[in-house]
Amino acid sequence: MHKTRLNPKVVVFILSATLASSCTLMTERECKNANWYSVGMKDGMDGAGLSRSLNYVEVCGKHQVSVDVNEYERGYKFGLMSFCTDDKARRAGEAGRTYNFEICDGEVKDLIARAYLEGKINRHKRNFNEIHAQQQVVMTKVRELEKELMYTKFQNPMLKMKFDELLKAIKSQSNNIDRDHGF
């Protein structure tokens, strides 16, 4: 059996990239000067998980700087109040973005999840309507071609047969879409 050997430089690069992306990097100066309430508030407003504070503790701990976790959590909870809104969740769903409603508390979480799903449904309806409008444009062009064909004699019967088959398939697909979606 052939064993593949990894280049140690590649392994170090991959591990470094993974570690860097898994935690919030802060310099020693940023750790010392941080207003932990503000940092928590921003993370809450951005919808980051509360576990992000553990990243700060780890990174700043390497600089021998302690994180005021209580202030961070107070700010985080305040920031969540602006993140955990049905309007923000609905807009995220409509835009096709992910929305971490799991971090919202209790009953609010259910309302937020519902708003997010409503937004996703609105997005899909909008996309469907756009596709339906495009379908109507195509069908209009097909009807125009049909009219032209009525005035034009086909010299090649095989070509006419292929066109008829294609036209039948387009109409069938259009009827299926209309039937399935109530148009």
Taken from the alpha-carbon principal axes, the silhouette is elongated
Largest sheet: none
Approximately how much helix is present in the residues?
over 70%
Strand fraction: under 5%
Strand tally is 0
The average pLDDT value, as a whole number, equals 80
Radius of gyration: 29 Å
> Helix segment count?
8
How far apart the termini lie comes to 61 Å
Please state the structural category. mainly alpha
Query: Runs with pLDDT <50, length 5+?
Result: 6-23
Order of helices and strands: HHHHHHHH
Helix/strand layout:
Layout: H1 8-22, H2 28-33, H3 36-46, H4 52-62, H5 69-83, H6 86-95, H7 106-151, H8 157-181
Describe the structure.
With 183 residues, the chain is mainly α. Helices cover 76% and strands 0% of the residues. It has eight helices and no strands. The chain has a domain at 9-133. It is elongated and about 85 Å long. The termini are far apart.
Keywords:
single chain, 183 residues, mainly alpha, 8 helices
Summary, kept brief:
The chain has 183 residues and is mostly helical. It has helices spanning 8-22, 28-33, 36-46, 52-62, 69-83, 86-95, 106-151, 157-181. The protein has a domain at 9-133.
